[in-house]
Specification:
alpha+beta; nine-stranded mixed β-sheet; 37 strands
Length: 604
């Protein structure tokens, strides 16, 4: 066993390589703005080398760092009146903490809600008066609880259940609260309940009942008009995510039936007369405007690639965060120009992504391929597997894959079954054969990569973080002759121990995926746990882990490592003082260096 120290050979001296510049270049998120004070905004940036929250007064141009913590801060919300910044304070990335708040112009951080102990967050909605809030909490002991706080008074509990739930939204006039819940026991498909601030139920919407299909709902937001009981809802009734309008007062449901392929989401324009529609299809995304009066659907012009977030401003303009695999992210506006352009180092471009479709055991599989410009195969190839699992790789800028390309590797990213953006059946297919289904799709794409001449079969790297790290360890164990190296970041390694140690919301998800607990369906957990196959692993394995990670806790990783040590298997482990990943730029660079060096040593 080797404990890495972050100083691989060749890491020092010389000018800064492009791959490091991409990590160091200042980045910004899409700014959030206060509903009743739109000149006041909040965004996240890594300008100081750590991701932190920044307050931005658009009227004066002043930008102020609002948080400053060793391990960074990204969870923050502006109150609608623009007077307060609420931010979630955990301990070194463990995601267990309390909400604090500070004045927008700066000042002391104080507890936002007296009387609520530390927990995992389960949603937050702040009233337009700035002093009313709906706070969702999750703990192993209590499950999910939701509290209403008014004017600094004691929090009043309005909801409690053992299964996972969360705050969806608070109506514009503060009289209605939308809750997403999974009381039916299916953590992948939520139902909705609308309640008054005293907790009494106003209306229910549940697509999980009365049919053979498992359909989910999600809260997209109340209409931004006083006295308007319309709630924008995402549904899956036609096998994909689409928006509809639910009038909570009358019960009327208005199906928008937008003629767009793929998944569709939406948010309100500030006057409530239209929707800003976000459309995702085959790893790309674009924006549209839907008019309620005429039903007209008009494209909002954005460049080809991926829109990672968008918001409609009071003047009718749209601000959006855009990137492509080749072009770094930027916040633009339809009114023209760049909204936020942080000073300093600019991220170098990378190479564009190529689309590949491969026939697999569950249908056509979409993969994204990048390779060094001007090269021909066979190349050493990294199969970088995304996390989630309900997520997807897209034509968007990512510094990690670009670093591998800079070092002469081809990078293949597979949107396996379980990925979003390809329909409900594709996303839900992994249930009960967790991990094994996804690897079948990775295998099909791997066979294409080798047979097409892209990938060198003797230099194949399986890599990923979180769920991708889990699939990496499962893959090198169940397919020991297929992979030359395995690189797993913050993985599930011992699924039974992971279940018992992880945060409550993930326990609920695992019960849904497997059909029960490890005690109720032990064979399923055993079949899907990397620990089951650890003695079959032949490839050198590198594992990085956050010691405070609540999602893929450290004890289950240590159990896996102990088995590798007992066998004398070739491996290295790097532990760092954070949670499920790091918000510190230098730490991210260190981890990429270690992975690059490990692969280079074991592929030579």
């Amino acid at each position: 066993m080797t404990e890495s120290n972050g100083a691989p050979r060749g890491a020092g001296g010389g000018s800064m390589p492009d791959w490091e510049k991409r990590f160091r270049a200042p980045r910004v998120s899409l700014p959030d703005w206060a509903e009743d004070a739109p000149d006041r905004s909040l965004f996240v940036s890594n300008a100081t080398g750590t991701y932190e929250l920044y307050a931005w007064d658009r009227a004066t141009g002043e930008q102020r760092r609002a948080t400053d913590r060793p391990n960074g801060t990204t969870d923050g919300v502006l109150s609608p009146d623009g007077e307060w910044i609420w931010w979630f304070s955990d301990k070194d990335g463990d995601e267990f903490g309390v909400w604090l708040r500070q004045p927008f112009g700066g000042g002391e951080d104080v507890p936002a809600v007296d009387g609520l102990e530390a927990s995992y967050p389960a949603g937050l909605a702040i009233g337009r008066d700035g002093s009313t809030a709906v706070v969702g909490r999750s703990t192993d002991e209590d499950g999910t609880t939701i509290h209403v706080v008014r004017g600094g008074g004691a929090p009043q509990e309005i909801y409690r259940h053992r299964e996972s739930a969360g705050v969806g939204d608070l109506s514009h006039d503060g009289t209605l609260i939308a809750i997403e819940h999974t009381e039916h026991g299916d953590a992948m498909h939520s139902a909705l309940r609308v309640v008054r601030p005293d907790g009494t139920t106003v209306a229910e919407l549940d697509d999980t009942k009365g049919g053979s299909q498992e359909l989910g709902l999600e809260v997209l937001g109340f209409a931004p008009v006083d006295g308007d009981a319309r709630l924008l809802v995402g549904h899956q009734r036609r096998g994909r995510w689409e928006p509809m309008v639910w009038d909570v007062a009358s019960g009327e449901e208005t199906d928008l039936a937008l003629d767009l392929p793929g998944d569709v989401s939406a948010e309100w324009y500030p006057d409530g007369s239209a929707l800003l529609v976000a459309h995702s299809f085959e790893a790309r995304s674009d924006l549209w405007r839907y008019e309620f009066g005429s039903g007209a659907l008009t494209r909002v012009e954005t460049p080809p690639g991926t829109v990672s977030g968008a918001t409609a401003r009071p003047d009718g303009s749209v601000e959006y965060l855009w990137s492509s695999a080749a072009e770094p992210s930027v916040v633009r506006s339809t009114s023209g120009g760049v909204v936020l352009d942080p000073p300093g180092l600019k991220a170098p471009v990378s190479v564009p992504v190529e689309d590949v479709w491969v026939e697999g055991p569950g249908g056509r599989i979409h993969a994204l391929v990048q390779k060094p410009a001007g090269t021909t195969g066979p190349l050493p190839t990294v199969f970088e597997v995304h996390g989630g699992p309900t997520w997807h790789d897209s034509d968007s800028f990512a510094a990690g894959p670009a670093a591998w390309v800079d070092h002469g590797y081809a990078v293949v990213r597979v949107n396996y079954r379980g990925s979003t953006g390809y329909g409900r059946e594709w996303t839900d297919a992994l249930k009960h054969r967790v991990g094994l289904i996804e690897l079948e799709d990775v295998t099909a794409v791997r066979e294409w990569a080798v047979s097409s001449g892209l990938a060198d079969p003797d230099r194949l790297v399986l890599a990923g973080g979180s769920w991708g790290g889990y699939l990496t360890l499962l893959g090198v164990g169940t397919q020991p002759d297929a992979w030359a190296v395995g690189l797993a970041a913050v993985p599930v390694a011992d699924y039974v121990t992971a279940y018992h140690d992880e945060m409550a919301a993930l326990k609920a998800l695992d019960r849904t995926l497997f059909g029960g607990t490890p005690e109720e369906v032990p064979d399923r957990f055993t079949a899907s746990s990397p620990l089951t196959y650890v003695d079959e692993v032949k490839a050198p394995v590198y594992i990085s882990a956050g010691v405070n990670d609540p999602r893929c806790p450290i004890r289950q990783i240590d159990n896996y490592l102990d088995r590798l040590v007992a066998r004398g298997a070739t491996h290295e482990v790097y532990r760092y003082d954070a949670g499920h990943g790091s918000l510190v730029v230098e730490e991210r660079i260190k981890q990429v260096r270690l992975e690059l060096d490990f692969a280079a040593r074991h592929l030579s």
